[in-house]
Amino acid sequence: MIFDWVDVERKGHLSLEEFSSGLKNIFGSSQSSHRLRRRKPLPSKRVSATTSFPALEEADAEEKEAFLAFIEQLGTGHLLPKQTEIWQLWGQLRQEEPQLAGNLAGFLAKMTSRLQEAQADKEALELTLKKCDSDHHREVQQLYEEMEQQIRQEKQQLQAESDSRGLALTSQMQDVLEAKEREVQRLAEGQRELEAQLSHLRSTHQEAASENQQLWEAKRDLAGRLEEVQGQLQVTRGRLDAARGRVSWQMEEKLSVPGVGEKTPDPRAVSPEEAPLPGLFGDNDDWDQLLSNFGSPPHGALQLCWSPPPTPRAASGPQTPRVVRQISISEPQALLFGQEPSSDPDGAPRTPPGVPFSAKDSKGVDPEEQDISAEQPVEPHDLDPNQEPGSTPEGRLLWGLSGSLVAPAFKVLIPLEDGPPPPPQAPAGSSKQIQASDPDDKDPGSWAPPRGAQPGAGAGPRESTQTPPTMTEPETQPRPSPTTAFTGVGPAKPPRQRDTLQQNLHATGSEPRPGAQRALTLGPTEPFQGLEFVGPLPTERLEQGYTGPVVQEGLPEGLREAHGRVLGLGELPALPHQGLEEEPRSEEGKQEGRGEQDLSSEQSVEAHGLEAAHSQLPQQDYLLASLPSATPQAQVEAEAAAPGKPAPPRGSPPGGAQPGAGAGPKEPTRTPPTMAEQEAQPRPSLMTAHEEEQGPRHSREPRAESRLEDPGTDSREAGLTPSPGDPMAAGEPQANPDYLFHVIFLGDSNVGKTSFLHLLHQNSFATGLTATVGVDFRVKTLLVDNKCFVLQLWDTAGQERYHSMTRQLLRKADGVVLMYDITSQESFGHVRYWLDCLQDAGSDGVVILLLGNKMDCEEERQVSTEAGQQLARELGVSFGECSAALGHNILEPVVNLARSLRMQEEGLKGSLVEVTPKKQPKKFGCCS
Ligand SMILES: Nc1nc2c(ncn2[C@@H]2O[C@H](COP(=O)(O)OP(=O)(O)OP(=O)(O)O)[C@@H](O)[C@H]2O)c(=O)[nH]1
Ligand SMILES: [Mg+2]
């Protein structure tokens, strides 16, 4: 019924809300009550009764109890609306329609169950909702976690990628860095090598500079001697003028074998009959003057014979007539020489016209030689007035050659006039004669070939004069002596002399030259073509400054020998000898590596030889001249070694020398080197003596000893070994010490060796020193106990790469300063290593000083003084500590070392005296 009340629209079903609201409307609104009353009259009563129904609190206990029981019965007290409303409704219903009270109970129960169901549904829905919510929440959470996980993974992945990329980049960078580092190391290595090369080049340069200096000094010395000799020459000339005799010319014509020249037609070739006598032997009134220039003694008789020797192949050729002109000088005053009779009235040396004899033109020929040659009477232009001497290189060359060759020849001949000429059968050219083979003596046209080829006046005649030097040498003789050709004085021996001439010509030219070959064939077979020798001279050689090479290459030995003989004779031309001899020697020295010892020994022997020459001339001169291929040095050595011929005292005339004009004034030129000269030289004799005295160890030290004389130069880069030509070796006052010792500074790198030495020499501490490269040395002169000590202080490099170099040096050591750094235990520990090195080098008996440096760095000291002393005691060496920075204890150890060295030297001296009384102490002096 109530449903029907509530279901106003009669739908037959109601929702909970519709029912509740309908019920409320029914029971809450008066209208509904009215409507109920209208439909049912009773309800109007009930409304009035309701209004009179008391409130629950005011109701009597019975009704209230019944109501509560009713409500409790329903069991839905808490679900139903307010109890008051139910109370009123229940009261109203009991009043108005008590029969419905039961229905109300049922209705309420039903409604309660419905409410409970709705409540349950609600709770179920809430649970579902909660569950959905939780599910949703869980899903969201899960999703969130998944996303987070994914993000984390991606992050890790990115991180890993980044890390790997970083690692790759790092390794790549590392590789690049390593490559760069290697590159830097390589560059540093290259730089070090370059530095080493630079230092080597620097030392080489210094050596070359010192050699240059020596050469310059030698040149100056020679120039001085030249002037001196020129003065003597003038004196001699004056004497000769006074004693000028008659010169007669003898000519003889002979037939000679035709040479190859006939077979090889040459426009310049001249037949023997047509070929003119060289101008040298022409009818020239200046012969007298020419001879006078060379100091022929009074009443001298000169025979000049020139015969072109046959070439080897000429021997097989047909014989042709040969013209040999013999020239004899019997009256010196009778003849005048040269084309310049009035050009030099006083007989002073003069240069042939058109032949500049400057050093520049000489190109290698010693100026002295040029000067001498300029004075030579046998000049092309003298012989042939039509020629223009010296207008070509050949001309100059010939001038130089003729001068150098002819002059000695005349000089040699001069002494011979007093005695009989050497027998023809004398060994090696003793029988040689200066012969001039001239087909037609006065015909200038006969010289056409040379002149045609070379307009220079000197060409032809000089060639003729050049050839003689080689005349006497046997065919097998590779380097014939020109002097032998000149020295021979006696009757011409055509066949043999021609042969020798030919051979000598070959030797002169070394190889058969195109033109020379023809000249050589002139010999006995083609006598006149020999004169063409000059013309065909290869121009390229002349253009290359042939004058020098000719002397040194073409006729080296002969020239030297000739000069050597001239020297021995004591004649004026000693100068050319020196000039020529010394130059080739210097070249030989270069070719042989210029060992100092070699040089010194050479010079020593040379000096000796000079003296010996005095006593052996002229006989020995002749002999020497005839020596086949003796080099100047060999010759001098032979002279020096000749037994029973001691060198005469200085100034004394040479034994056997011809009394005459040249004897007196010539003496000075032949005196042995003076003291000053010896000092200027690397002191050969000194070194030789020392070598003999000092035994094996010291004999290795000639170079160092030569440095001894080093003047004030304190320090210089030495490279490895000093050279003899070192400017330091020049003589100086203090270069005459009482003692010379080699002291080597050893020790690790950075211990302060160089600083110590720098302080010792410069008296100041050097900052910013770089590590020593190779070896350096300084010379320190000390006056200790009134004795002059020269200490060669060798500063070695402590860096390991130079140790081998240092070891080589140790053999030289007289004393060793073994330095360590007191702030470096390592350097102290290496002291024994250095001692081992010393022992390995076999340097026994070396005076050793153990020196700890940098004692100013007391805070950083790692090696105590006691440790140093202890080690020194163990090793039995001296000990000291010093500071190069503060200058503490620098000189004292060196002085003590010098004293120790001296004591040791004295002890050695004593022991040596016991064994060999002749031994002398190691004392050095310019005169010792
Ligand atoms: N404090 C101090 N420093 C020093 C002294 N002597 C040298 N030195 C320093 O030590 C360093 C090496 O000195 P050097 O003289 O070049 O050493 P070294 O023994 O010649 O070295 P190498 O030539 O490589 O064998 C330099 O920096 C000097 O300034 C010293 O007495 N006291
Ligand atoms: Mg150093």
From TrEMBL:
GO molecular function: GTP binding; GTPase activity
The protein, known as: RAB44, member RAS onco family
Keyword Lipid metabolism set for record: no
Ranges of compositional bias, category Gly residues: 653-663
Alphabetical list of InterPro entries matching this protein: P-loop_NTPase, Rab, Small_GTP-bd, Small_GTPase
Biased composition (Low complexity): 448-475, 630-644
Native organism taxonomy: Eukaryota, Metazoa, Chordata, Craniata, Vertebrata
Chain's gene name: RAB44
GO CC list: specific granule
